[in-house]
Inverse folding.
């Protein structure tokens, strides 16, 4: 790998500035989902075990360069202490006097959390002065926030150029999984791209058709591709003005030798609601007053065959309106098939971005996937083939 891991930097007795993503959902002062906090535990514990002093840099909400008391990180201290099983101190600023004093007072075995980096306007501007003020606090920089790596901010990018830098364990796991899925994958590679709209996933589709052997297109965006092929999709969600773009993607795929799989049959209904009366029809037989809400069983069979013929799978977006039963059927069945093949050691499966994690959890399939990325925007930008500044800055 081109970046350093925690095993390759000297941490003994050193103050390690660790960029983490603990932007957890909080309601009435209570953390409602501590996943992000739990995910940084291995990195922080590892630094402690190596004799380092972890000083956490993090953002919380969107204070836009102002001190917004409701967006203080202080309320997260008890949750962090509980997850880490050590004492967690807090400093009222991520730079300057309060931070320096707290770092100096930090004892071996303790962790220090610095106040919201986004309270400084310089953070999102990647201001060199702010980066230098952060770097002045530590001796080593560790980035464990893959989910913030698509932003070139002081705490995610700037500091990495000033201090010796390494990837934390979560960042390392994420990068290894992504590398295995699209960097140097075992072929054949299959991608599933679903979701509502083509327009939000143009770059993603354009990049994938040049890299994968099979591309399964589902969800509302498949309707746009059907329209591009001259099919009448009735009242379905479809971006009719994107038909030409969809045709260009199909052409690009053909030139690159990527097989596109669109639904061959579809489940249609007249209302977008749970348990709406529905029927399964061929992909060109959606009634004028109905809408396509899911892929049908024949499509699922085809997708299962593609999965069986593949060694690597990368997945973003549901195959249908998965929030409302029974229009979650294709997403559930395909996800379960991928999980089964992965469990049997026949497939490496990586998924992430937006609703995908929720859809795979709902299908009961997430646990058996090789890797599920909880990073939304960063995962998508990486699937789009874009360089992530926070990752690029870690390169040796
Ligand atoms: P995205 O955020 O682009 O991944 O899109 C996910 C959303 O697309 C989910 O809320 C799904 O309900 C929705 N979706 C998927 N398929 C369809 C469809 N055929 N018609 C309407 N909405 C859909």
């Amino acid at each position: 790998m081109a970046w350093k891991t925690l095993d390759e930097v000297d941490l003994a007795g050193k103050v390690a500035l660790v960029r983490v993503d603990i932007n957890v959902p909080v309601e009435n002062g209570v953390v409602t989902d501590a996943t992000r906090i739990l995910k940084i535990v291995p990195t922080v514990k590892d630094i402690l075990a190596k004799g380092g002093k972890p000083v956490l840099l993090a953002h919380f909400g969107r204070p836009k360069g102002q001190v917004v008391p409701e967006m203080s990180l202080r309320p997260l201290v008890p949750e962090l202490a509980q997850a880490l099983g050590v004492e967690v101190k807090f400093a009222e600023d991520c730079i300057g006097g309060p931070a320096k004093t707290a770092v100096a007072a930090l004892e071996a075995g303790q962790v220090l959390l610095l106040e919201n980096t986004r309270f400084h306007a310089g953070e999102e501007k990647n201001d060199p002065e702010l980066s230098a003020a952060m770097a002045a606090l530590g001796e080593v920089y560790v980035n464990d926030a893959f989910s913030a790596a698509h932003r070139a901010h002081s705490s995610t990018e700037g500091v990495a150029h000033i201090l010796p830098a390494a990837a934390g364990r979560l960042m390392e796991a994420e990068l290894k999984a992504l590398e295995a899925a699209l960097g140097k994958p075992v072929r054949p590679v299959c991608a599933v791209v679903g979701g509502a709209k083509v327009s939000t996933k143009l770059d993603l589709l354009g990049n994938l058709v040049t890299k994968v052997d099979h591309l399964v297109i589902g969800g509302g965006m498949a309707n746009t591709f059907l329209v591009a092929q001259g099919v009448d999709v009735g009242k379905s969600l479809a971006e009719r003005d994107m038909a030409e773009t969809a045709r260009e993607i199909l052409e690009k795929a053909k030139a690159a030798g990527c097989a596109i799989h669109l639904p061959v049959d579809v489940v249609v209904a007249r209302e977008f609601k749970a348990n709406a009366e529905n029927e399964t029809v061929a992909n060109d037989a959606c009634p004028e007053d109905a809408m396509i809400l899911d892929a049908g069983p024949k499509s699922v069979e085809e997708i299962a065959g593609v999965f069986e013929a593949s060694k690597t799978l990368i997945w973003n977006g549901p195959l249908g309106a998965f929030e409302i039963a029974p229009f979650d059927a294709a997403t559930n069945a395909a996800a379960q098939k991928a999980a089964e093949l992965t469990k049997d050691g026949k497939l490496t499966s990586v998924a992430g971005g937006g609703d995908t994690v929720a859809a795979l959890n709902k299908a009961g399939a997430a646990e058996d996937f090789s890797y599920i990325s909880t990073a939304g925007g960063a995962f998508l930008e990486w699937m789009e083939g874009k360089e992530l500044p926070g990752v690029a800055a870690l390169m040796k």
Notes: The chain has a mean pLDDT of 96. Residues 195-197, 200, 219-220, 237, 292-293, 317-318, 320-323, 354-355 surround adenosine monophosphate (CB under 6 Å). The chain has two domains: 6-170, 185-383.
